[in-house]
Write a structure and sequence with these properties.
The protein is mainly alpha-helical. It has a domain at 54-221: Leucine-rich Repeat Variant (Alpha Horseshoe), CATH 1.25.10. Helix content is 68%, strand content 2%. A two-stranded antiparallel sheet has the order 1-2. Strand 1 and strand 2 form a beta hairpin. Functions as an E3 ubiquitin ligase.
Length: 337
């Protein structure tokens, strides 16, 4: 599998590193640390029992056994497993060792929306433990999670996106997830979901698109349009996240043409002018790679008034990397056309 999440690019003898997976902070992307607190209505007696419980050796096997019982018992057991695994890493190990993963994966295919949601959420919480990721993937979780991403409740979709993100952190899963049909659904979630859904979708797409074939899939699925729209809306709190994803996609030529076609150039120039320092650097990086493609794109960027804010960026207090990229882009735009 070809991956190039940290690949750089060269211009005029300078090598510029793109923002890699390790460059983004928790403020840029959703951590997908666990499901939403208070997501399920929980009887007070059950709450007290779970708070007092230390997940004893007999409790967890009992819950696992209930996963193969009636629908109501399955719902109760999945909900309790979700709560037990929400914050305690040691419980995630115990639950997996007790054999919960395969029956929980089966619940994700349930026609009962609530049971499916509970199964997705429990799998998400178990996937937070690195030791469980391979077992979850090998238990056939990817396809049911993709179906939940397509047909589940809003919460099931969000948590399925998070679970797929966690599984995609194993390099060998990225291509399998991409080929499963997840990427168009994540793009749709990015476009139409609520704020949490957009965060979760952008994070999952960022992780998956370190694989080249997934970048092409994302562009073919229309990812550039929602990225441009989110970057144009400074109030969306999605400018950084969208710019990270767009920057990662620039290594495939299809993405550059798509950015131009979707009206991304004026949006990127506006970010260079009015964005935060990090946003400015990402916008310059994207514009530089677009302008390397063809003189037509350079003319377009220059006509959008990019040079004055680029000059200001080279003179303002920013990072050395941002100034170098701005200087390289200025030189490129000033070449005879």
């Amino acid at each position: 599998m070809e991956t190039d999440s940290s690949a750089g690019f060269s211009y005029l003898g300078h090598t510029f590193s793109n923002l890699s997976v390790n460059d983004h902070s928790s403020s840029a992307f959703s951590d997908c640390n666990s499901d939403r607190s208070g997501e399920f209505p929980t009887p007070s007696s059950l709450s007290r029992r779970l708070l007092l419980s230390s997940a004893t050796d007999d409790l967890i096997p009992h819950l696992v056994a209930l996963l193969s019982s009636s629908i109501e018992n399955q719902k109760q057991a999945a909900m309790e497993i979700r709560l037990l695994s929400k914050h305690k890493p040691e419980n995630r190990i115990k639950i997996a060792e007790a054999g919960a993963i395969r029956p929980l994966v089966s619940l994700i295919s349930s026609s009962d929306p609530q049971l499916q949601e509970y199964g997705v959420t429990a799998i998400l919480n178990l996937s937070l433990c690195d030791e469980n990721k391979d077992l979850i993937a090998s238990s056939g979780a990817v396809k049911p999670l993709v179906r939940a991403l397509k047909m589940g409740t809003p919460t099931a979709k969000e948590n399925a996106a998070c679970a797929l993100l966690r599984l995609s952190q194993l390099e060998e899963n990225k291509i399998a997830i991409g080929r499963s049909g997840a990427i168009p659904l994540l793009v749709s979630l990015l476009e139409t979901g609520g704020f949490r859904a957009k965060k979760d979708a952008s994070t999952a797409l960022y992780s998956l698109c370190s694989a080249k074939e997934n970048k092409i899939r994302a562009v073919e699925s229309g990812i550039i349009k929602p990225l441009v729209e989110l970057m144009a809306d400074f109030g969306s709190n999605m400018v950084d996240k969208s710019a990270f994803v767009m920057s990662l996609l620039m290594s495939v030529p299809e993405s550059k043409a798509a950015v131009v076609e979707e009206g991304g150039v004026p949006v990127l120039v506006e970010i260079v002018e009015d964005g935060t320092q990090r946003q400015k650097e990402m916008a310059v990086s994207i514009l530089l790679q677009i302008c390397e493609e063809t003189v037509v794109y350079r003319t377009m960027v220059a006509r959008e008034g990019a040079i004055p804010p680029l000059v200001a960026l080279t003179q303002a207090g920013g990072t050395t990397r941002a100034k170098q990229k701005a200087e390289a882009l200025i030189e490129l735009l000033r070449q005879p056309r």
